[in-house]
Every structure is written in structure tokens, then in C-alpha cells.
Amino acid sequence: MAFESAGAGELFLLGRLLFGGVLAFMGLNHFQNAGQMTPYAEAKGLPAPAASVYGSGGLLLASGVLVIFGAYPVIAAGALTTFLVASAVMMHNFWVVPDEQVQDEMTQFLKNIALAGGALVLLAVAGTSWPYSVGMSLF
């Protein structure tokens, strides 16, 4: 299996803590800074921008915590992958912004795509037994 080598389970747990922790923190940030994020979401043309900020914050927070605990990995990793790719394309479309915003938007775009890659890796191993997890899964 994927975690048979010495220390692999511990490294996987550390990776889940870091990855899930950053995503959960990003979700909390949506709630704490919704007043600043809502006008940005509105400027990007999102319908119901305030609800979008809170909804995406909830998704990031819940999915991040699920990754940390190793619970419902298919749901958590699938939701994160979908959200991060959609967010990269819709919110950080560096190819259509003014020149002075291109670098910031490209950085955010690439960050989301890299995080989506990490979520895909978790999705790829979601059917295996995750070391140090609570063992809750639908599949």
C-alpha cells in the first residue's frame, strides 16, 4: 500500500496537517475579512457576492478540517479540487486584468492551481486507509 515504508504515515499526517490547516485558515479568513472580500467578489461578477464569500469560507474551513482528521476524504478532496480550480479561473483571471494587477492575480491563480494539485493527490489516495485518521468515509 501507499504508506508501508518507515515514516510514510507520519509524513502523510504532517502533510495533511499543513495542507488542511492552511485551507482551514483561509476559510476562517473569509469570515474574518468578509467585508473586504465581498466587494472584490462583486467586482469579479459573482452572483450574491457576500454569500459566495461566506460559502467559500465554509467550504475551505470544513474541507480543511476533514483533511486534517482524515474524514470523508473523497468529499473533502473532491470539493477542494473543484473549488480551487473554479476559483482560480473565475477570481484570478490574470489574462484579463490591467497590467498593474497581472502579477498579483497570476500569483493567486498559480497558488490555487498548486493547491488543487495537492487536493488531487489526496483524492488519488482517498480509497486507501489513511494513517492517523478518524476513519470516517463514504467509500
TrEMBL record:
| Record-linked InterPro entries | DoxX
Task: Keyword check for Metal-binding, yes or no.
Answer: no
The protein's location, in the record's own words, is: Membrane
Cellular component aspect of the GO annotation? membrane
Lipid bilayer topology: Multi-pass membrane protein
> Which coarse location class applies to the principal site listed for this UniProt protein?
membrane
TM regions (residue ranges): 12-31, 51-69, 75-97, 109-132
Keyword Transmembrane in the entry? The reply is yes
Keyword annotations for this protein, in alphabetical order, are: Membrane, Transmembrane, Transmembrane helix
- Pfam families assigned: DoxX
Q: Which domain of life is it from?
A: Archaea
Protein name (record)? Terminal quinol oxidase subunit
| Record organism | Haloarcula japonica (strain ATCC 49778 / DSM 6131 / JCM 7785 / NBRC 101032 / NCIMB 13157 / TR-1)
